[in-house]
Amino acid sequence: MKSRLLTIVCLLAVTFTSVNTSRANEDSSLDCVADVVLVRPGCFLATVLGSVVYVVALPVTATSKSMRSAANTLVVHPAQATFTRPVGDFSSLH
After folding, report:
1. What span, in angstroms and rounded, lies between the C-alpha atoms of 4 and 48?
2. pTM of the model
3. Quick count: other Cβ atoms within 10 Å of Cβ 58?
């Protein structure tokens, strides 16, 4: 059973790494679907978890006067990636 699973994982890895990504036209429908199904929920989760971490770390960031940079990193950037980024546009994610 373990060797069968390992074989399947290896075959999938080889298959996905050899996909030709060049296209004659700019069809971004797959990008839009991946964005809506995978990336947006992940960014939303990052926003929620970042908010929790920010609140927990608030006493430390307040004493070091780095509240603004912590808020931008943990809350603002993930929120912008979730709510204000155009669908299918991955250029603003870093």
Report:
1. 38
2. 0.67
3. 13
